[in-house]
Amino acid sequence: MKAAFNRMGGQLTKLWFDRVTITGVKTVRDGAFTDTVPVTIVENEPAKVILKGLKASDQTFFGTDAYDAKLLIRNGLKIPAGADIDVTNVNGQLTHYKRASKGYAGYASHQEVAMDRDEKATEEAE
């Protein structure tokens, strides 16, 4: 049965039209000092974003753009908690997510990452 789900995972990515770049941090030592540097985990990877909640009535302060989302992405990637995720959707719009969870790879076909978008609204009316 697991083999069928593994084959499905390869086909599933053909249905995902969002593209993601995931950036994490790596600890480096410079003599006695320890610092973190950004490192790209994956770039231009097919994925799918699912919005969990996007209701205007839940907003506590107008002028913010906040909602929860889930990222569906292939297994085999190690996505750490706290990673920054940039998603370019099928229409070419870029969205930046922060406060991501560690990837949950409990499914044979894909893994899920919980994400949070919480930014001050900056778009101007046309």
Give the structure's gist in a few sentences.
This protein is mainly β. It contains 1 helix and 6 strands.
Low-pLDDT residue intervals, each spanning 5 or more residues: none
Instruction: Report the helical percentage.
Output: under 10%
Question: Could you describe the largest sheet, including whether it forms a barrel?
Answer: 6 strands, antiparallel
Instruction: Find the CATH topology.
Output: Thrombin, subunit H
Number of E strands: 6
What is the terminal-to-terminal distance? 53 Å
In sequence order, what are the helices and strands, one letter per element?
A: HEEEEEE
Q: What CATH architecture would you give?
A: Beta Barrel
What is the typical, i.e. mean, pLDDT?
81
Shape, principal axes of CA atoms = globular
Please report the number of helical segments.
1
Sheet/helix structural class = mainly beta
Alpha-carbon Rg, integer: 17 Å
Question: Which oligomerization state do the chains in this entry correspond to?
Answer: single chain
Strand content bin: over 45%
Please write the CATH class name: Mainly Beta
* Total domain modules: 1
Strands in their spatial order, largest beta sheet: 5-4-1-2-3-6
